[in-house]
């Protein structure tokens, strides 16, 4: 009973934490804020996979919920907010938003930490050619201890650090870096973003992205690796969404009854 209650409380806290953006103008305001940090800041994204993971992992929940900014990512989260009668706002998935952020850091030092060679080098080349040609780059693959990333960041003082290690590792590294760095920088939990830039993973056609079906495209590319995440995981997420929305309705009625 206690375990069933725990995941609902975690979901409730993260739902309140997520920053929803409703207009293109608000999106630009958000970008400006993220690109001028006064101290180390962590940007993370919450999608259906993250919600499933934090239901079972207290450490991941703590890492994600203590990020400075958490944004809604994907159609699954739109479904969740709609079930809660909360306007979901724009879909600010990292794969589309992060390139816009990177371009605003052009001319400042950028660190790409994640994936593996040769995709990491290809990813750096892509970013340098297409997004931030005036920047200086440092890079490291995604399989080092936290101290390696920290020492590189201390030495080069990147204004932007993009982590492409996947959940929950990147969130753990992000929080560790923020706790030790002192220079202003934005630390992004980027998932597969460096793999996309490096050509390891392909983007879905635009029509699939616009209709919230990029997960299906990725499942077709890597069915064995992603079956549990996208097929079983999506069913678990939708079931939990229905349970959670009913839980919130009951809680609201109890609060109103006590206030009456």
Tally of helical runs: 13
Gyration radius, to the nearest Å? 19 Å
Mean pLDDT: 91
- What coarse outline follows from CA principal-axis ratios? globular
**What characterizes the major β-sheet?**
6 strands, parallel
Provide the number of structural domains.
Answer: 1
Structural class: alpha/beta
- Tell me the total number of β-strands: 6
Order of helices and strands: HHEHHEHHEHEHEHEHHHH
Poorly predicted runs: 255-260
End-to-end separation: 29 Å
In helices, the fraction of residues equals 55-70%
Strand order of the largest sheet: 2-1-6-5-3-4
- Proportion of β residues? 5-15%
Helices and strands in order:
Layout: H1 2-17, H2 24-34, E1 40-46, H3 48-56, H4 58-65, E2 69-72, H5 75-83, H6 94-104, E3 110-114, H7 119-130, E4 137-140, H8 146-156, E5 160-164, H9 169-180, E6 185-189, H10 193-198, H11 206-210, H12 214-221, H13 223-259
Parallel strand pairs: 1-2, 1-6, 3-4, 3-5, 5-6
Task: Briefly summarize what is shown.
This protein has 260 residues and is an alpha/beta fold. Helix content is 60%, strand content 12%. The protein has one domain.
